[in-house]
Amino acid sequence: MKPVLVFDIETIPDVAGLRRIHDWAADVSDAEVAERAFAARRAKTGSDFLPLHVQRVACISCVLRTREGFKVWSLAAPELDEAAILQRFFDGIEKFTPQLVSWNGGGFDLPVLHYRAMLHGVAAPRYWEMGEGDYADARDFKWNNYISRYHMRHLDLMDLLALYNGRANAPLDELAKLFGFPGKLGMDGSKVWDAWQAGQAAEIRDYCETDVLNTYLVYTRFRRLRGELSAAEEAAEHAFIKQQLGSLATPPWPEFLAAWA
C-alpha cells in the first residue's frame, strides 16, 4: 500500500509582509493592518479574500494512511513558526513520496505553500521533481509528478470530480454530509482570523483536522468509485478509522464521532 498523505491548510493575513509591502508603520496594530488589506481587497474585488502570497500558514493538518496504520496530526502555530511548519511538511514528502490528496489543493493550498516556502527559503526537492533530478526514480516523475494539474501524484479531489470545471465544484462540507460523514463542526475558513486574534489556535487546529479527515473519508468513496475498494472494504476502512479515533479523548474527535454516528 502506497502511503497516502491527505492535507489541508488554514491561513491568516501575513501582517508583517503587508507592512513591508505597503510600508505601513510598525506601530499600526496587526488588526488594523489586516483590516486595511481587507478593505483594499474589497474595493478591488468585492471580497475580503487576500491574494495567496500574503496569506500566512497557521496550520497544516494531515492524515497519513500507510500499511502500518493511520495518523492524524497538525503542524501548527504558535508551537511552530511558519518556516518550520512548511519545512516539516515538505520533509514528509521527501521521506515517504506519498500519494498527496487534497480538496482544492491545486487552487489554494499548494500555491500558498509555494509562495510561503520561497519566502522562508524552504527546500522541497522531492516535491518539485519533474523528471530531471538525481533520484533513482526521477524519470517516473516526468509522467506523474506533484506539480502538473492532470497528473495523479497529487490528487485534488475537488478539481478532478468537477472535471477541471470550476462551475461544477462542490463544497467539501456539503459533499461530506451528503455521503454520511460529519462535515464541518462549528467553524469555517471565514472565522479563522477572528479566532486567531482571540487566541484560539487550538480551535483552528481542531477545525483543520476535521476538514482533512472529511477529505480522507470522501477519498475512500472516490476509491470505491474507481474500483480500488469494494463496498465491504470501504466499510472496513471506516470502521478502522472510527476505532482509531475512539482511542482519542481530546477534541474534536468525540464530537466528530458523534456526528458521524
What can you tell me about this protein's structure?
- This protein is an alpha/beta fold and 261 residues long.
- The protein has a single domain, classed as Ribonuclease H-like superfamily/Ribonuclease H (Nucleotidyltransferase, domain 5), CATH 3.30.420.
- It is 48% helix and 14% strand.
- The protein has helices spanning 15-22, 30-45, 82-96, 105-120, 140-143, 157-161, 172-178, 192-197, 201-225, 231-246, 253-260; strands at 4-13, 55-66, 69-76, 99-102, 154-156.
- It has a five-stranded mixed β-sheet, sandwiched between helices.
- Helix 3 (82-96) packs across helix 4 (105-120).
- It is globular.
- The two termini are 28 Å apart.
- The model has no long low-confidence stretch (mean pLDDT 96).
Indicate the CATH topology: Nucleotidyltransferase, domain 5
Report Rg.
19 Å
Distance between the termini: 28 Å
**Order of the strands making up the biggest sheet:** 3-2-1-4-5
CATH architecture, please? 2-Layer Sandwich
Classify the helix fraction into a percent range: 40-55%
Number of strands: 5
| Number of H- or I-type helical stretches | 11
Q: Write down the overall geometry.
A: globular
Q: So what's the CATH class?
A: Alpha Beta
Average pLDDT works out at 96
Q: What portion of residues belong to β-strands? A: 5-15%
The structural class is alpha/beta
| CATH H level, superfamily name | Ribonuclease H-like superfamily/Ribonuclease H
Order of helices and strands: EHHEEHEHHEHHHHHH
